[in-house]
Every structure is written in C-alpha cells, then in structure tokens.
C-alpha cells in the first residue's frame, strides 16, 4: 500500500456547486486549528452569526451554520419542526421538493404534495388551494431556488400565503443565498437553510440556517423529542447561542468555519446588492452567448436563476461526451441533469466568485469549440462575441 | 459592520481534541476544490476507503467517513441499526455512554444501562449479566476509549460476549483510532465510529465509520426506513460504494476530505504500530512528570489511555484559573472535566502529532510553573526532569 498525497487538478467549477472557491477562503482554511471552546474561537463564531444575518437579511437570533452539508440543514429544519402526525404541504418543482417529502415522512409527518412542472416556478395559486383544502396543515415547504432545474420561485408570495393560513414556512435557499435576492425578514420566512458551496464560494460541508422566533417557539413547544440528537436545536443552541458560557454539544468543524467566516467577510466587502447585480450581469452575458449558439434555456426568462443556467441539450448531441471533453480538454466542469432532467439538460453554474467575465467567456468558447468539433447542428464561433456584446451593452 | 479576516492565535492543543493538526494536513485543506463527482475526486475517495481500512484494521467493504463530526458518526450507527422496539444494552462509564442512551431512545429503542464508575473500564462481567438477563437484546454498545475520563475498555472481550449472545456491537472509538490498538476484524466489532480530530491529527468535522457484513445485512433487512435521510446508509452507500457510477446523495465536504486523505497518508508512512508506540512512549514521559509533581491519575494504570490523561485536581487549586493562565500565558490548551467530572479533573491530550516530546516537556514545564506560582501544595520544578529521565530510560 503506497498511496501518495492527493493533488487535485486545476478545474474551473461551473456546475451546480461546489463552485470555484476564493483563494482567500482556501488560505483561511489552512490556518492553525484552535479549540472549539477557545474564547478566540467563540468570538469568531459570534462574528459568523452577525455576518450570516446580513447574508440572510434577517435579525433572527437563531442564525448559524449547521456542522454538515446542506442536506443536513434541510433535515435540521424538518426534524425540529415536524412532529409525528403533522401535515406539511410541499411544493415540488424539481429534485429537492422530493427530498423534502422524504424528510417529512421520516419524521412521521404527512406530506401533501403540490406538483409543478420541472423547470417552472412554484404556482402560488396551487399552493393556496392546497392550504385551503388542508386547514390542519402546519407548514408550507418549498424550494426558493431549484438547483436541479434553475427555476426561482416567488418566496415572498408563498410566505404571505402561508401566514394567511397560519402555517410556518420552510424554505430551501441552498442555491439562492448570496446570489439572488433573499429577504428572510421582509418576506417573513420561518425556517431557512442553505449551503456554503454555491453563491458564497466557500467549500462544501456547512449549512447556514436561520429560524424565526415563531419557528423557535414551535421547536420549544414540541411534545416529542427531536428524533435526531445531532440536529436537535435545543441542544445545538447551547453551543451556538450568544452570551455566557458555551456548552459542549459536538466538536465544531473549526477550519471549515474559518472558511465560512472569510467567505462572509468577502460578501460584506462586496456588498450583497453588488453580489446580486454581478450574478445577474454575468448571467446576461452567458445567456447572449448560449442563445447565439442556437441553444435554449429550460426555464422561462422571468423565473430563471442567474446563478444556475439550465440549457436544453440540442438534438443528436451526446451530452455526456460533451461534459467529458470539457473536463478533460479544458479542465472545465459543467453539470449534468439530475433526476427527471438527467440526459436532457446541462447545468452551467455562475455562482459566487465563479460568476465572472473570464469564466463566462471561457465556458462559451470551450462549449462552442466542442460542439462545433462534434458537428452539432449549431452555428459555431459566435458565442464569445455575443457575450462580449452583452457586457458592453 | 466591519468584521475582518480571522487569524487564530498559535495555540498548542493538548486538550481532549481537536489536537494539533499536522501542517501537511492544513496545506492539503487549502488545495483547490474540485467537484464531488469528478473522476479524480472519486479516485481519491477510493484511496481514503483503503487507508481507513488500514487505520481500523479491517477488510469491511463499508468503511468511509461520514460527512459530519463524530456525534453524527455515533448517530449513523444507531439510526441504521436500531428500529423501534429494539433493545440495546449500553455500558456507560462516562459522558458518551449517556449520549448513546439518548440515541437509542430517539430511535424508539429500549436502552438497558450497565453502569460503571467514571474513570473505570467497563466491567465485562456486568455486560454479560445484562445480556443474560435480556435475551431479546439486539445490540451491545460501549465506548472503547472514554474521552470524558481517559479510560480504555476491553473491546475485544466485550465483542466476544456480544457474539456469544448473538448481539451486534456498536463501539465508540473516537479517541482510540490511530492512538491505541483497535483491531476491528480481529475483535469482531460490527459498527464502529470515530473522529478525525483526535489521534489522526486532522481537523474536526468528519467521522470515519466501518460496518461489518453482519451489520450491513441488518441495515438492509430493516422493516422501517432509517429515520434520518442524511445518515441513511442505504442512500449514502450509493455515493461511497466502490465501482461503477456514483449517485449524488449530498455534496461531500471536499476540502475536509483532502485533509483526511493526507492524515491517512501520514499514518501509513509512520506505520500504525509505530504510532501506537509513540503515543505510549510520550504518555510514559508525561506520567513521570505528572507524578513527580505529586499529581495523580484518575484511571488506574492498566486502563489508562495514553492519548488522554485525566489528572485529579489537587486540593485548593482553582482549576479554571490554571487553564486560563496556561491559555493566556503559554498559548497552551488543556481540557476541563466534562459532565460528572467537571471541576474535578484536567484532561491532557497527547493525540496524533501533538503526542511528541516537545509538547510533553512544554506542558509539564508550563503546568509546573503555573502551579508553583499559585502556591499549589506540590513540589515544583521537577516535572520536566522526571519526564526527560523517562525518555532516556
């Protein structure tokens, strides 16, 4: 057995996440590990909470990163809020709504599914009909930014409807946080989870979450224990809650938190509105190039996420071969379709620091060249020029 | 809001973990992030599995790191193996046996507790009596290396007893892996979980686990779904299982896995038996110094973990003040007592790369100086000399 140190290739990450990580964040990750109860570390945790509130646009006291990837953030929301027998209306328009259903059922809850087409936004009218028909529903759950399709839903309207029917909201913002407007307090969202490896440009492994007072009251008033010890907010709060002594719950992932801290410092330096504008602007340039090649988007323009571009595979093109060539010849990763979208779409991410002009032009140039070489039935060599024109407009 | 980049102080970590991290591991963590389905990354995952089998001394196919800290590794073992109504005999001799009870109950299982004194090893006879009295028990669970007390239990004998009564074993090896002999296959352990931040000298945030065929068969034969979606091995395996295509489950913590890979390369270079010897040797030197100061160990010599030294607080000493002075004046972290041991003991870790001569002498010198300065009723200035003599013997 002689396994050597691993040196990753220098990829450009333009898939559905992880996206390229800022060098400053990678450097922060390599700083010396200190204790998870060290006063200096506890002070850093407090700064993370302050900066996460800015990222989520909230004043929620309970705003912190869960010490595990986004899926654990999702599960944290469901296991804390759903008790056996609770009814949850779930709006599904992609893979992650289905995962919500799994979570509800594993908590002993009853999931009422409201289906929309994959690639479409959630229809608020259908959500309202479901709440009308299920007056005993406790929670309305939906995905703000569907990573599997690139569709954005109207979280503000969905939260208004939920409140009208006295329901809490659970919102998946894994792909929206830091990339597209997300106003937790203004919109009145109750339990919100995200990931670090998308528009925050940090490494994967942490899940920022925020819970309203209303949500926290619900957790505290539970009749049954939270089924997960690791994710039980009543316990986690003893470590993450502000002020006083921190109680040991689990050992925090110290260096990953250094990385998140740095990612949030960078977001604060840029300004979140500027980050949203940058994501929008690079999307417009990519869109110009994509359309100039004769390719089309899955999601209609007004529901499109600027940070996740789902492109329909043109007829006769071997989509996996294109991705493999981009990876092997250009060190460029773009995403495949997931679930029902497998084989039908590519997903081009422009997330966090990967949302920049260099990546847009590089990706268009590489995709154009590979498609031309494979004799795909499209106009070739025009994509980069179209994108450049969009930047100048 | 103007929060700046965080630069941690240069501590020496000699508490119960995290322990000092090898600089090579910190450097590996800062390498460029690549995709979690990238063929190069998948190849690295395979290497991690091979090297984890070496660390656990097992051939178990299902050997992998859970994407979250040790507590989630514990929960992964319990939620996958315990179904509602299942009876689990738990040997408790410290904090972590109590956490096992919480896990069993949250899975709807029945916990039968076998109590031993904190600081003592688990008594195999009492465990056998409990299995005799509970012929319907399905699992025997115990902590191999109690991080809260520094006591080591005889995992081999406990596993033999469990097999005799047709029970599976769940063993907590968070603090033993890489520091003290742990022979998963020879001893016949079934579900074993650990952490990265102890004797592997890696950063916290991952939990290596290994499951025997017998354990895996039990998971596959479940009548009910695993209550955690994130920890469901039936799903996780689709991503971590060898060969063929990897199915997306959650986004792996890429850079943390770079760190673990490097930690395991280092373990392989040193040789695991050499690592065990080194931990033993540095413990003996620390012991000589501790005893020369007139301090005493909580755990009797034959049950003592070399990597975690629980020292009784001498009468009249303000234990928190000592730790604070060590941290502030020497940048040295040692651990406080946990649970029933709070205020009664210090925990001095000699784990992973922190188990070295420099740390032993530094810690003894600093502790000796602080205690002398506080006029604690002990002989001062002799600790380092005693340790040096032990190294020379």
Description:
- Two copies of one chain form a homodimer.
- Chain A is α/β, with parallel strands linked by helices.
- The first copy, chain A, has two domains: about 20-270, Type I PLP-dependent aspartate aminotransferase-like (Major domain) (Aspartate Aminotransferase, domain 2); about 270-390, Aspartate Aminotransferase, domain 1, CATH 3.90.1150.
- Chain A is built from 14 helices and 13 strands.
- The first copy, chain A, has helices at about 25-30, 40-55, 70-80, 95-105, 125-135, 155-165, 185, 215-220, 235-240, 255-270, 270-290, 320-330, 355-375, 385-390, and strands spanning about 10-15, 60-65, 85-90, 110-115, 135-145, 145, 150, 170, 190-195, 205-210, 310, 330-335, 345-350.
- In chain A, the strands form three sheets. A seven-stranded mixed sheet of chain A has the order 2-10-9-8-5-3-4, with helices on both faces. Chain A has a four-stranded mixed sheet with strand order 1-12-13-11. A two-stranded antiparallel ribbon of chain A has the order 6-7.
- In chain A, a hairpin with a 4-residue loop joins strand 6 and strand 7 (about 150).
- In chain A, helix 5 packs parallel to helix 6 (about 155-165) and helix 11 packs parallel to helix 13 (about 355-375).
- The longest helix of chain A is centred in the last third of the chain and has 21 residues, at about 270-290.
- Chain A is globular and about 65 Å long.
- The relative contact order of chain A is 0.16.
- The mean pLDDT of chain A is about 95.
Features:
homodimer, 15% strand, alpha/beta, seven-stranded mixed beta sheet, 393 residues, Aspartate Aminotransferase, domain 1, 14 helices, 2 domains, Aspartate Aminotransferase, domain 2
């Amino acid at each position: 057995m002689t396994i050597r140190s691993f040196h990753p290739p220098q990829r450009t990450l333009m898939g559905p996440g992880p996206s390229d990580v800022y060098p400053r964040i990678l450097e922060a990750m390599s700083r010396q590990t200190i204790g998870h109860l060290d006063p200096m570390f506890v002070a850093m945790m407090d700064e993370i909470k302050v900066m996460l509130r800015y990222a989520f646009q909230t004043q929620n006291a309970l705003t912190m990163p869960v010490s595990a990837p986004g899926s654990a953030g999702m599960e944290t929301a469901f296991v804390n809020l759903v008790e056996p027998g609770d009814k949850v209306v779930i709006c599904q328009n992609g893979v992650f709504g289905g995962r919500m259903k799994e979570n509800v059922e594993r908590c002993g809850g009853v999931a009422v599914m409201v289906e929309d087409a994959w690639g479409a936004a959630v229809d608020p009218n259908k959500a309202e009909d479901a709440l009308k028909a299920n007056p005993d529903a406790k929670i309305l759950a939906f995905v703000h930014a569907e990573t599997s399709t690139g569709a954005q839903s109207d979280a503000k309207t969905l939260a208004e409807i939920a409140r009208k029917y006295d329901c809490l909201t659970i919102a998946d913002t894994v792909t929206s946080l830091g990339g597209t407007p997300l106003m937790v307090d203004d919109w009145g969202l109750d339990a919100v989870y995200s990931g670090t490896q998308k528009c925050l440009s940090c490494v994967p492994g942490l899940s920022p979450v925020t819970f309203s007072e209303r949500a926290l009251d619900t957790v505290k008033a539970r009749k049954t224990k939270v089924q997960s010890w690791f994710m039980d907010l009543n316990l986690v709060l003893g470590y993450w809650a502000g002020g006083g002594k921190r109680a040991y719950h689990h050992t925090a992932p110290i260096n990953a938190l250094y990385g998140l801290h740095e990612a949030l410092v960078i977001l604060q330096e840029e300004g979140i509105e500027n980050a949203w504008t940058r994501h929008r602007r690079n999307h417009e340039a990519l869109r110009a190039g994509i359309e100039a090649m004769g390719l089309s988007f899955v999601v209609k323009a007004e529901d499109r996420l600027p940070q996740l571009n789902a492109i329909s595979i043109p007829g006769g093109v071997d989509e996996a071969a294109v991705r493999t060539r981009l990876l092997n010849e250009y060190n460029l990763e773009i995403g495949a379709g997931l679930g029902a979208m497998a084989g039908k779409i590519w997903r081009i991410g422009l997330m966090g620091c990967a949302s920049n002009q260099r990546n847009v032009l590089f990706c268009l140039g590489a995709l154009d060249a590979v498609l031309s070489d494979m004799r795909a039935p499209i106009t070739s060599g025009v994509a980069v020029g179209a994108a450049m024109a969009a930047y100048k407009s």
